[in-house]
Amino acid sequence: MAKGKPILYGAWISSCSHRVRIALNLKGVDYEYKAVNPRTDPDYEKINPIKYIPALVDDDFVVSDSLAIILYLEDKYPQHPLLPKDPKKKALDLQGHEGKLSPDESIQLVQRYIDKGFRAIEKLLDGCDTKYSMGDEVHLGDVFLAPQIHAAINRFKVDMHSFSCRKSTQFWHASMTRTWRFRHFKLHCPRISQMHLQPNNQKLDTSIYSSECVISAIMRMVVIASC
Amino acid sequence: MAEPCAPASRPILYSYWRSSCSHRVRIALNLKGVDYEYKAVNLLKGEQSDPEFMKINPMKFVPALVDDDAVIGDSYAIALYLEDKYPEPPLLPKDLKMKALNIQIASIVCSGIQPLHNLTLLRYIEQKVGTGESVPWVQQQIDKGFTAVENMIKGCAGKYATGDEVQLADVFLAPQIFGAVTRFQIDMSNYPTLARVHDEYMRHPAFQAALPDRQPDAPSSA
User: Is the ipTM reported for this complex over the cut 0.95?
Assistant: First the structure.
């Protein structure tokens, strides 16, 4: 029986969806992309009862949460492995994904958290003098880091030059300009490409965040309540 | 040339008694029968900012695990490291879909619920929004997450969340439900499957030994 292509439900602005797009492209998985706003699309709940994005529908299987999706892809599509075999390096890669970062309008607070997270990641990567964060191949840490750096630069005006070894910025620029797979995802995400290339004057649409980004609603509430 | 093997030292867990993230790792270590050394990091006294601890985990979070020359922060990374290093008993099923389900539930807890009621954020809300405002906020976030997980497991739960064996989802759910019940007065009758598995966790020795008030740094009861 012919199997359909996996379907990725996501949103252009969602960095959690962005991670999964990168992983799918790295593994060369042909997928169908469906843009969705879980808050306003009434049919989405029938597809994913927990209404989070991103979500991947693979035949009769629905999985949401970017880490769960990516680790599922890692098992099903072992080409271009995203996790090292060495348990210690693997743990380091997994540790790097937990950036605890919060996209939001409360810029100062967000910048503080991004600064904390990026400085910690810089320390974890200290001594890794490689093309990407942990080696000369893209790994899971890079898949999570890239969208976060993109959001930091384009949405939250984080000055990447304040990070001493600038590894994060170097990786981002290398990935966006050199690797065909990242160019490929730009075809699916032209608005993100535009955000990267041009000053961002767009008002944030914070209504379409996935579970990991819900903290933005907290900050918005806090900002509004404190005005 | 064969060299005599130095006895491996015990892993060291940096933990705070009430930290739900540390609680997860304590459960995992107990389930796998790993003998470890417990080092307390008092978050209320700011010991996470000590320079020595920051070398262990630059994010200044607990838990952190030092296992010979491996230094790992973040409960999820530690749990998956333990899963690789101590394969028995396995916490992740071999079936891809059930494995993804467990990873998803663990991720919902550690990304989508717990960070939304951590101490820093609650203090921020109390300060910026108003005294007592953090309570309805926490209840709303826990309700959202628990409703999602309840819907995910009600078709596949057995004795535990995703079957009749303890799996990764249980390791992450147990501390979250414990905190919800004891600290945030969540009414578990809205989540009958989660309430039932919570009762099972409270009966399981590995989970019992990991409870906050059984840790060396827990305050003595008055």
Answer: no
